[in-house]
Amino acid sequence: MDENILNISDQLQIPGSEIRYRFSRSGGPGGQHVNRSETRVELLWNISSSPNLSEDQRQRLLDALRNRIDDEGVLHLVSGETRSQERNRKAVTERFVALLQEALRPRRKRKKTKLSKAAKERRREEKRRLSEKKRLRRQVTDLD
Prior knowledge:
- Helix content is 39%, strand content 17%.
- With 144 residues, the protein is α+β, with helices and mostly antiparallel strands.
């Protein structure tokens, strides 16, 4: 994987040498195989020290993926769905690429819109109705 380059977008390519993989025993079904082989794969990528990211890209990734990043700025992704270490490694790498593409996708700015006169009138009418309902719930005072 060290020589491979992951193409995230036209502006970002990540060399495989920046990505580390850790392997451990996976849970779930599999009998003795699951107890003896380390098929669970954890992908680690240090966003904070990656030289391939611009500051804007780095900040967008840190904001979008903050729940998956530890205090040192390392992104953690795990795959243990299959019984094969190679398939888990491929699955976690594909998820990594998709996650980065989604996080770096430019967001459209929200256009402010005005409420129509009819919508304002409906809101006012609803307020009047609720106000009247509450007024009728008040305790009646005897005028005699």
